[in-house]
TrEMBL record:
<comment type="similarity">
    <text>Belongs to the SAICAR synthetase family.</text>
</comment>
<dbReference type="InterPro" id="IPR018236">
    <property type="entry name" value="SAICAR_synthetase_CS"/>
</dbReference>
<dbReference type="InterPro" id="IPR001636">
    <property type="entry name" value="SAICAR_synth"/>
</dbReference>
<dbReference type="InterPro" id="IPR050089">
    <property type="entry name" value="SAICAR_synthetase"/>
</dbReference>
<dbReference type="GO" id="GO:0009236">
    <property type="term" value="P:cobalamin biosynthetic process"/>
</dbReference>
<keyword id="KW-0658">Purine biosynthesis</keyword>
<dbReference type="InterPro" id="IPR033934">
    <property type="entry name" value="SAICAR_synt_PurC"/>
</dbReference>
<dbReference type="GO" id="GO:0006189">
    <property type="term" value="P:'de novo' IMP biosynthetic process"/>
</dbReference>
<feature type="domain" description="SAICAR synthetase/ADE2 N-terminal">
    <location>
        <begin position="7"/>
        <end position="231"/>
    </location>
</feature>
<keyword id="KW-0547">Nucleotide-binding</keyword>
<dbReference type="GO" id="GO:0004639">
    <property type="term" value="F:phosphoribosylaminoimidazolesuccinocarboxamide synthase activity"/>
</dbReference>
<comment type="pathway">
    <text>Purine metabolism; IMP biosynthesis via de novo pathway; 5-amino-1-(5-phospho-D-ribosyl)imidazole-4-carboxamide from 5-amino-1-(5-phospho-D-ribosyl)imidazole-4-carboxylate: step 1/2.</text>
</comment>
<dbReference type="GO" id="GO:0005524">
    <property type="term" value="F:ATP binding"/>
</dbReference>
<keyword id="KW-0436">Ligase</keyword>
<dbReference type="Pfam" id="PF01259">
    <property type="entry name" value="SAICAR_synt"/>
</dbReference>
<protein>
    <recommendedName>
        <fullName>Phosphoribosylaminoimidazole-succinocarboxamide synthase</fullName>
        <ecNumber>6.3.2.6</ecNumber>
    </recommendedName>
</protein>
<dbReference type="InterPro" id="IPR028923">
    <property type="entry name" value="SAICAR_synt/ADE2_N"/>
</dbReference>
């Protein structure tokens, strides 16, 4: 596989073409941002850890019959994935109240929800990723009713698999964000699932093992990310 031209740079990743029009290469960076890019920094070896974590979790999901964009990890920072036509929606799944749900409801962080809550956001930094609903998505033409239903179904399935897996390694999966795209007409899981895109709390100490450490200036971000990849690799690698 030949690496081709640079296509796109996001906040945490770069994308390159390959000699196969249906495949792109993702390169994970150490750059960290929060609040739609207003806060900037780096987390040591974050790119290496997120590449590894995401690929191991995507392979776990594939084993459970959930299609992802993952094809092959090439090296520490580079992974080949199916080229998706990204649906510009962020699908957030929540098991425990935290972050913006706590702010929106006035309920304390840490309260377990009686069932998972799925939220939809329009992926647009300039607009600060506003929360939207399925009417907006359909009427704006971002996805069809069937595609919205499929994202919802997959979000619940992915949550069931990941929640159980994280529980088995002593971590509470508080909430996380997913992005989907179209590949050969199918709705396929893309982007990444990593400590950047999940809230992960140690089951015993409730210590935060995710990007909230960066967002909230708590320190020890790199150590937290290392702890997550260490526990995942002990089971999945
Ligand atoms: P929130 O509580 O800030 O809405 O975040 C919910 C989850 O989504 C949390 O696990 C972090 C993740 N997330 C992203 O991956 N990207 C984002 O831009 C935001 C705002 C949240
Ligand atoms: N997407 C947000 C940003 O880069 C990061 C976050 O809060 O997760 O600003």
């Amino acid at each position: 596989m030949q690496v081709g031209e640079f296509l796109y740079e996001g906040k945490a990743k770069q994308i390159f073409a390959t000699d196969d029009a249906k495949v792109v290469l993702i390169k994970y960076k150490d750059d960290a941002t929060a609040f739609d890019g207003q806060k900037k920094g780096t987390i040591v070896n974050k790119g290496i850890i997120n590449n590894r974590v995401s690929n191991l979790l995507f392979q776990l999901l594939e084993k459970e019959g959930i299609e992802t964009h993952f094809i092959k990890q090439l090296n520490e920072r580079d992974t080949l994935v199916k080229k998706l036509a990204i649906i510009p929606i962020e699908v957030v799944v929540r098991n425990v109240i935290a972050g913006s749900l706590s702010q929106r409801t006035g309920k304390a962080e840490g309260v377990e929800l009686s069932e998972p809550v799925v939220e939809l956001y329009y992926k647009n930094d300039e607009l600060h990723d506003p929360m939207i609903n399925e009417y907006h998505i359909r009427v704006m033409g971002w996805a069809t009713t069937e595609q919205i239903q499929e994202m919802d179904r997959l979000a619940h399935e992915i949550n069931a698999v990941l929640k159980q897996f994280y529980d088995s390694i002593g971590i509470i999966l508080v909430d996380f964000k997913l992005e989907f795209g179209l590949y050969e007409g199918r709705v396929v899981l893309g982007d990444e699932i990593s400590p950047d895109t999940c809230r992960l709390w140690d089951k015993v100490s409730l210590e935060k093992l995710d990007k909230d450490r960066f967002r909230r200036d708590m320190g020890k971000e790199a150590e937290a990310y290392q702890e997550v990849v260490k526990r995942i690799e002990a089971v999945l690698a």
